[in-house]
Amino acid sequence: MSSPVPTRPLHLAVALDRTDARDAEPYARTARLAEHGKLDFVTLGDTLGPPRRGASRLDALAVFARIAPVTERIGLVPTVTTTHTEPFHVSSAVSTLDWVSRGRAGWTVDVSTGEAEARHFGRGPAAPARELWQEADEVADVVTRLWDSWEDDAEIRDVATGRFVDRDKLHHVDYRGTAFSVRGPSIVPRPPQGHPVVAVDATDPLPRATAARRADVAYVRAEATADPSAVRAVRDELRCRARESGRDPGRIVVLASLRVALHAAADAVALADLAGAWYADGVVDGFHFRPEDPDRDLPLLVDGTVPVLQHRGLLRSFYPGGTLREHLCLPRPANRYATARRTA
User: Fold this and answer.
1) Between residues 341 and 257, which one has the greater pLDDT?
2) Which secondary-structure segment (H or E) carries 80?
3) 3-state secondary structure 315-327
4) Which helix (H) or strand (E) holds 12?
5) Which of 115, 146, 154, 256 is close enough to 91 for a disulfide, judged by CB 3.0 to 4.6 Å?
6) Would you state the pLDDT for residue 61?
7) E-assigned strands of 149-303?
8) pLDDT tens across 324-340, in order?
9) What string of DSSP letters covers 271-332?
10) Least confident of 41-50, 96-105, 141-150, 193-202
């Protein structure tokens, strides 16, 4: 008989990236399999660069909008590049995904540093990475402000009076950053989660600063053979910097992002051993697995690694809620403008 799941749950996510897809069905198939394993969420990478030879270049947000209706509980976290992209459009696209998935959306913040991508968009030479991550930090900030620009009960939809919204509950964000300004409000009502989950790959120092200030989920890339103390050091740094930024450091879910290649059931068990050991030692809050071959590795992960972790009492066997924030044990954020209005 398995032990009860601990109060501090182990979180698991998996990347669906592949080079052979020309439509959304392969992604939908693997997302449903990950949902069968009760994983918290799936990710899909994206870039602004021209397609690479032999690689699929489907838009990650559009793919997950297609997957949302054919899944029920699993979170959907596409990569969205903030460089050459208007924050207002990022806000609208991610909040729309949250609506169509009924509260299961997130986004991984990324930047585009290449000259080829800059020429592709025709907006001048590429800026230095430090400037691009400063801009990404500002985008992540203004996006959450736009999500709050509608209070939760702003919609009236009163046919008799012809009133659609309560204008007192719509708010101008009036945001002015170093690279853009946004007046608001959003054109999309506040998302079901309040704020869809914000994720950042915090492996490198520059995005780590953004992760500490803005992220709900932070990935730390590592090899399965790596010294776990190095990963733990990044986790501790993230929490320390989050505290310095005025955030609750316990609100950042830190995941070790591991590339995996399973050829056999024994590999799946060995992965469960590693995950359990790192988790028990407090190295990370969970894992983001990046399968070398999703069609081969994901079934072994779901049918091999997951049951072992469940049997050991480290992983839940059901979804306790319906939203991605509930999966990750993150609270639904209060609306900053509604709170200010009530206080005033």
Assistant:
1) 257
2) strand 75-81
3) CCCCCCCCCHHHH
4) strand 11-15
5) 146
6) 96
7) 155-158, 163-165, 175-176, 181-182, 197-201, 217-222, 253-260, 286-291
8) 999 999 999 999 998 98
9) HHHHHHHHHHTTS-SEEEEEESSHHHHHHHIIIIIHHHHHHTTSS-SS-SSSSHHHHTT-PP
10) 41-50
